[in-house]
Amino acid sequence: MLFAGSTSSREASREAVNREAEQILTVYGNSMLRFAYSYLHNMSDAEDVLQETMVRFLKAAPAFASEQHRKAWLLRVVGNLSKNRLAYNKIRMADELRDELIAENRDDLSFVWDVVKALPGDLRETIHLFYYEGYSTKQIADILQKKEATVRTHLRRGREKLREILKGEYDFEDKIR
């Protein structure tokens, strides 16, 4: 009997969490959706973030000290998931662009980005931010929370590494500056 009692207790608990989730969507659903949309500027992605937030709520079933605590938790999760979605979309967009170039039989310099992806982390980040995103060394230093001299060193080392790899594989020595 003890075993059966704990099952019904779990079911009652799960039912309470489901009711709370329903209440959250009624009270905060529009705020959460608007907050996600303010990051993403895409309703489909914003709806996905809202849905994932609710899944996280159902899995965690957190206890909140107050309504303000509940709303703050929900909006923090929405914000974090939105930022994750932005990063994912940026990667997906770069891959789609590369696929588009390949479909058009245009290599341009896309093979160089394949080599950049193979660089060690610090060098790859710096090269990407400088050449692909167009940030200055000072801006990169702020983003990566490093000294500007370190960023310049990473740029120099990254260029040297790219020169070595591209010269060996593509006989591309003088075109990288």
Radius of gyration: 24 Å
Beta-strand content estimate? under 5%
Give the biggest sheet: none
Determine the mean pLDDT: 79
SSE pattern: HHHHHHH
Uncertain residue segments: 173-177
Indicate the percent of residues in helices. over 70%
| Structural shape | elongated
The class by helix and strand makeup works out as mainly alpha
Number of helices: 7
Strand element count: 0
Q: What gap, in angstroms, lies between the N and C termini?
A: 77 Å
Would you write up a description of this structure?
The protein is mainly alpha-helical. Helix content is 82%, strand content 0%. It contains 7 helices and no strands. The chain has helices spanning 2-40, 43-60, 67-103, 110-117, 121-132, 137-144, 148-170. Helix 1 (2-40) packs antiparallel against helix 2 (43-60), helix 1 (2-40) crosses helix 3 and helix 5 (121-132) crosses helix 7 (148-170). The longest helix is centred in the first third of the chain and has 39 residues, at 2-40. The chain is elongated.
Structure at a glance:
It is built from seven helices and no strands. The protein is mainly α and 177 residues long.
Task: Identify the notable features of this structure and list them briefly.
177 residues, single chain
List the topology elements:
Elements: H1 2-40, H2 43-60, H3 67-103, H4 110-117, H5 121-132, H6 137-144, H7 148-170
Helix pairs in contact: 1-2, 1-3, 2-3, 5-7, 6-7
